[in-house]
Amino acid sequence: MLDKNHKVVVVGAGLMGTGIAHAFASSGFATQLVDTSAEALAKAEKSIHGILDGGVKLGKLTVDVADAAKARLSTNTVLKQAAEGAHLLVETVSENLAVKKAVLGEAVPVLAANAVIATNTSALSVTEIAASVPCPERVIGMHFFNPVHKMKLVELVLGIATDEATVATSREWCDAIGKTSILVNESPGLTTSRMSAMLGNEAMWMLQEGTASAEDIDTALRMGFNHPMGPLELGDLTGWDTRLSVLRYLHSTLGEKFRPCPLIIKMVAAGRYGRKTGHGVYKYDETGQRVPGSGLKASNL
């Protein structure tokens, strides 16, 4: 059983690591955020404090609650120090197998007995990552979604060695931070990445064929299926370069139904990745706001 004395260590102070650290610290757990970059850690801490302060302004948190969450969060550039005695390790470093194995190799020997070892990977093999440590049964994928403080889902990804005790404890951790967990057997694209890639790819085929305008395709999914964001808007947010990489991987592993739409390839070649470049399916102003009426039309393609 979990208790508030259990310690969490999150490795990687990028966007996902920042959100994950916030989730645990704000839920009552002493949380250490680790990164080799002191600058990244300072930026992450500032971001977490900003989320908490925003909650106070909106009346969702009291000042005392926000201050207590800030006090539970600490940062460290030395992994072995931070991981000492931790009951949960969540690594969210770059999608590089060697880097992930190195993190686990350094942290696992100093974790608490029976600690859960979680990887936030969405593309690499949990089984292969787990094979690098002497306790592969304690390794599980814990795939969070961005922004973590708003998105309720966590995909728990089972490697070939993941045991029932690890699954049960991982579900407890998710419950403790107010997330809904689902179980996924290790497979390309898991559930959400696979479905989202197919939906976005099909939307691009429809746009290329002139079935409807970008705005109307997105409106159809928002209003007809109650999606919070249309597939083309989501592609702009995710980045079409990232989406193309995922589609190529799924195409190579799962077959023709994931062949990337030529329009995605064309947009990536033109550097139109989405919001991060100011131009994707839609155009964006300097503040990142979408320019009304800027969606691609069949006549432009």
UniProtKB/TrEMBL annotation:
Residues 7-186 form the 3-hydroxyacyl-CoA dehydrogenase NAD binding domain. Residues 191-284 form the 3-hydroxyacyl-CoA dehydrogenase C-terminal domain. Pfam families: 3HCDH, 3HCDH_N. It comes from the Bacteria. Keywords: Oxidoreductase. PANTHER family: 3-HYDROXYACYL-COA DEHYDROGENASE FAMILY PROTEIN (PTHR48075), 3-HYDROXYBUTYRYL-COA DEHYDROGENASE (PTHR48075:SF5). This is 3-hydroxyacyl-CoA dehydrogenase.
